[in-house]
Design brief:
It contains four helices and no strands. It is mainly α. It has a domain of about 55 residues. The longest helix has 16 residues.
Length: about 90
């Protein structure tokens, strides 16, 4: 997806001209390093804490939500897409 968005493809160029795209990489790196697929080191499934993220227990989700709120103060968010890849 990132390769496409940065490519010279006319559709990618049109997207870049019309939209600002924020790409947030894997958010549970600490958990994955220890063999977890969905949970962080605190044992929380980060997909289940979006409504009330904790600064202490789910700081990455907390930060992403704060970023989204900052962006919303300046412009409309048209799409928020959470992409997963499990092997």
């Amino acid at each position: 997806m990132v390769d496409f968005l940065l490519s010279e493809n006319p559709e990618a160029k049109a997207l870049r001209e019309k939209y600002i795209v924020y790409v947030v990489p894997m958010i549970n790196v600490d958990g994955v390093v220890h063999g977890n697929q969905r949970t962080n080191l605190a044992g929380l499934d980060l997909n289940r804490v979006w409504s009330t993220p904790s600064y202490v227990l789910s700081p990455v989700v907390y930060a992403i939500k704060n970023l989204a709120n900052m962006v919303k103060r300046e412009r409309k968010i048209d799409v928020f897409c959470d992409i997963h890849a499990h092997f």
